[in-house]
Design goal:
Largest sheet: 2 strands, parallel
Strand order of the largest sheet: 1-2
Helix content: 25-40%
Shape: globular
Structural class: mainly alpha
Number of strands: 2
Order of helices and strands: HHHEE
Strand content: 5-15%
Radius of gyration: 13 Å
Number of helices: 3
């Protein structure tokens, strides 16, 4: 795990957000195709798409969305 985590660049704390989601993310999650039925995973996908983030997951359903995935 440490080897995988070392591949992830450190964020610039000036641009870093600890926001766990907002109305924009919720609206985007609601408009996602129903590839995934888990509402929490859809929020993660929506937030990653909006914020241009990479998702680290072993769930192959995430790759059905237009989002960067590190599996």
């Amino acid at each position: 795990l440490n080897e995988m985590l070392s591949l992830i660049p450190e964020p610039d704390c000036g641009e870093c957000s600890r926001d766990l989601g907002n109305a924009d993310h919720a609206h985007a999650a609601d408009n996602l195709p129903m590839h995934h039925c888990d509402p929490f995973d859809k929020m993660i996908i929506a937030q990653a798409r909006r914020e241009k983030l990479c998702i680290i997951t072993g769930d192959n359903i995430f790759s059905r969305y237009d989002v960067s995935v590190f599996a």
